[in-house]
Amino acid sequence: MPDSRRHPTPPGQEPLHPDTLMVSHGHDPARARGAIKMPVYHSSTFVFGSAEEGAAFFDVAAGRAPAPAEGDGGLVYGRFDHPNLQLVEARLAALDGAEAALVTASGMAAISTALFASLRPGEQIVHSRPLYGGTETLIGKQLAAWGVGATAFDDGLSQTQMASALETAAARGRVGVFFIETPANPVNALVDLAAVDAALSDFAARHGYRPLSICDNTLLGPLFQQPLRHGIDLVVTALTKYVGGHSDLLGGGISGSVEHLQPLRQWRSTTGCMLDPQSAWLLARSMETLGLRMRRAEATACAVADWLAGHPRHVIEVLHPEHIDDARYRAVYARQCQGAGSTFSLVLGGGQAAAFRFINALRLFRSAVSLGGSESLVCHPASTTHSGVAPELRARSGVVDGLVRLSIGLEHEDDLIADLAGALTVALGPGAVVP
C-alpha cells in the first residue's frame, strides 16, 4: 500500500514534476490485481495475519511505536487509516513539498484538527485578518469557550504588526499558534511568509520558544503557493475546492513534517474526522487533472479581471492579485506566489442592493458558495460565507456590502465576460457603459 510518510523520490534520482506524480504516484497496479487505478476499499476494518501483528499494528496506529522503515505499519480500522486515504495523502505531500500529509473530512475539519490538537486552554493564538468566516467563528467562539485567547493583526505585509500582536498575546499567556490565511478569502489580501518566519524567529530569541505556524493555503492551493518552503510549519487546504475541483466532494488536508503531524494524527483518529474511501478515491481522480484545471481557470480569470479593471466608467474595484496596486503587495506576490489563482472579488457602488441585482442577473455564473470547481460561481460574502463575522470586523477587513466574489471555472472567457457585461448593466443602470 502507499505510505504518505515516505518521500516520493528515491535518493539519488531527480524529483518528478507534480503533474507527473499526480498520475501514478502511490499506486502499484501489481498490488491491485492489475487495476490501472486504485479500487475503492469499502472496508471498515482490516484482518491481521496474527495476534502479534495486530498488536504491532495498533502500536503504530496509536503512536506508541514509529512506523517501520519500509511499509506503513499495517492497517487496523477505517477511522485510523485506509488505502484510499494513504494514496491521497501521498500525493498531497508531494504537491505541498511536505514530508507527510493528513486528509480530513472537510476543510474546516482540517483547520479544527490543526488548532485543537496544537492549543491548550489558557494559551493564545495570533492570527491574520481577514479570515474565512468559518475560521473566524472557530477562533472567536469555539476556541474562546475552551479558554484560548486570540490576537489579530490586519496588515499581513507588516512584520512590525506581527511582532506587536505576538507581544500583546504573550502578555496574556503562552502563544501556541500563529495562524494565517494567504491570500485571504475574499479580498485576496496577502500575508508575507518571509516576514512571518522572521517575526517568529525574533520572538523565539526573546521568549525561548517558537509558536507553531499554520497557513491556510486554500485560495492558491499547492500549485501556486507552497508555504512550507518559506518556513511555515503546517499548511491546511480545503481540498473541497481546487484539488477536488468538481463540486462533488468535501475534504481537507494538512501538510508538514512527521513530527508536527503526529499529535494531529492522533486527534483525527480519536475524533473520527477521517475522509471516507469514496471521497478519497474521487480526490485521487481529481488530482490527476489539477495542474490542467488550475492553469486554465487562472488564465481565464486573468482575462476576466483585465476586462473588469478596464471598465470605462470605473464603477468597480477589482480585488485580483494582478490588479492590486501596492508596491509592498506586488513584491510579496512576486516572491511567494507562482500564480494568481482564479478566485477574486469586485466591489460595486450601490452596496448590497446593487450586488444582489448583479448576482440575480447573471446566467452562466451559478449563485452558490464554495470555489475552485469546474463551473463559475458567484456569491455575496457579507450575507453568506462571512455573515457570522461581526459587521465592524467585516468592514475593517474590506468585506463590504457591495463586494461580490467570483470563482472562475472552465467556461470560455468570452462567454463569461458577456454574462458579466449584461449583469453590470442591470446592476448599475443603463448609464453605466459596458464594452
From TrEMBL:
Family: Belongs to the trans-sulfuration enzymes family.
Cofactor: pyridoxal 5'-phosphate
Protein name: Cystathionine gamma-synthase family protein
Lineage: Bacteria, Pseudomonadati, Pseudomonadota, Betaproteobacteria, Rhodocyclales
GO-annotated biological processes: transsulfuration
Region of interest: Disordered: 1-27
The organism of origin for this protein: Denitromonas iodatirespirans
GO cellular component, one term: cytoplasm
Pfam families: Cys_Met_Meta_PP
CDD domains found in the cross-reference section: CGS_like
